[in-house]
Amino acid sequence: MIHPSLALIQSTLPNLAQPVVIAVGIAYFAVIIAISLWAAKRTRTANDFFVAGNGIGLIALTVASVSTSVSGFAFIGGPGLMYTVGLGAMYIVLPAAVTNVMGAWVLAKRMRLLGEARGLLTVPDAIGARYKSPAAQGLAGVAMLVAIIGYMATNALAIGVVINAIFGIGIGWGIWLGVGVTLAYSTAGGILAGIYNDVFQGILMGVASILVFLFVLKAGGGLGDISHTILASDPKFLGPWGKMTPLAALSFFFVFGMGSLGQPQGVHKYYMLRDPLQLKWYPMLKTLGLILVLLLYFGVGIGVKAFVTNGTMAPLGTPDQATPNLLLSVTPLVLAALVFSGVAAATMSTVNSFINIGAAVVMHDLPVAFGKRLKNELFWGRTVTVLIAVAAALVAQNSGTMVAFLGIFGWGLFASTLVPALAVGLNWDGATRAGAIASIVTGLGVTLSLEIAGYLKAFTFPSGVTASAVSLVASFLVFFIVSWLTRDTAAESMDADVQLIMEL
To answer: Is 150 within 8 Å of 354 (Cβ atoms)?
Structure first.
């Protein structure tokens, strides 16, 4: 049974169930299945299943990372946010170039080498190895599971909404069809299937983004005419902060800048790179990829604002209608079908990443925290994958607005619990086991407390400062303070091989 609140969500996308759209959707899904069958033949061990056998080339890894980073947000939620708050929404994506450099500089090489030296499979594995602490590894795993619940449920719901728009089968069946396809390639091919499906989707979505942006420019008479139309009715929209306060915009920049170093769907991929020496090209390649894909994010947002302002398009019922309504207004139907199929597939790939990460936490990190290791990790990885996927579909169908609430703090929770212990810890030999554990507990507690207070409207920070920014700052402060207070234990919190990797 579908939660009553989903009736409102179901109306956010128009019904696209037309022969051309359905044909493109079926072809898209057929390619995904073919890639998954190929990946399944190459998945024989737990290492293959969770980290693709450490055998992914730089180009494939970069395109997959771009695809996972933007997912459905760049094509549905992002343009809607741009349409609503103006250029302030760009502060979510402006940190991209900075975070790509930071990721390659402070994390990628160390995690890749540490993974090879220790045979690591998960992000909490790296925390456990750095601090010689199963407890820190287990706590990081628990925090990730809480965040994964929100991410997977919201993405499962998004899959259902988009598939229903394409095939007209109802949102409930859309959820189960999308999760079912995702489950099939997650169980069979693991992360390898997800990587190469991301490559396929990332290439097509990059091309589609460029084409959509060009169609918007053509329909609006260029950026000059679009800007003049918006400025005449809403000059604040194109201001440096958009309709946001400066603190709110800078809060976005901080959380999405520093917080990117703790997003496991991206960080986990560092284990998979075949040759760490190629990382010097990673920041440039990923930044270029994000620029291409985010042309749609920017173009649709300002285009729809201009077209609604001059009467070319009707006012939107909800901000999430920005992309679908514009596609149906100014682009060929085939291109609209490609974008929608790509959104569904990209969202499924995001779900695939989190399914694999969540399964690894349950069957690897939590047993390690309790001093046990499971036999036949590949079998149990596939089994837990099924259970997590089914749970995500059920939560998506029955939880209504709580799903959205859980999704809101997912990013901030990953950031506040993982960034200090992982990103700082792998670059500072003064970090201690106690500091890492304290920061993880602080991030989990503060994020949950502030987000629940905000959800219940019991408390909000002034000037638009986000709870995620406050919890990330609190986690950093606790990490440094506790590490300083326990600085005498720093040497015993790190093994010699980890120290050597940090010095490379």
So the answer is: no
